[in-house]
Fold this protein.
Amino acid sequence: MKNIRKALLASLILVSSFCQVCPGEEPPVRRFAVTAGANLFRNTQASYRQLYGQSAFMPEIKIAWSFYHDIGIWGGCSSISGNGFIEEVNEEVQIARFFLGFGLGYVQKLNASMRIRAELGLTFNSFKEEALGAIRKGSGLGWKIGATLDYFFSKRVFVFLTSAFSQAGDQAQTGKIELGGFQAGTGLGFAF
């Protein structure tokens, strides 16, 4: 019981320290932000993960515009490519996926150098798969939700940690194809 109380107290102190205002000059408000990040993406469909692996590298570029106080809009694109192997027929498969998203965002400053961003929006996911001598294409429209922690190490440049979940799908002859999943990563941003 003592260890649980100590862990809770340490967590409370850590969270409250992030929320304290740092001394010094508050950086000026920046309306636009551009970010480039590197993520790991995990598809929600088990059969996809079995064929292409548990996670994939997913580069992502985003731009955001705050148009009213802490509320804004965002847009971004990312892609994944992967290779798999169908053991039953001894055949290699390849897939290329493209993600395009946009939506609303909210920014909450924690102190002079840290802030949290929350995003909710729509995502358009498309894929092109080459398997068994045939090419299969598809796409789906869905939703995406995410949260990001930014740390400004200068007035304009920041690093971030991000996580998101998206849900989209497409109907094929073999059944429904899940195109969404979990992503987590880090990157660099520029505010202007």
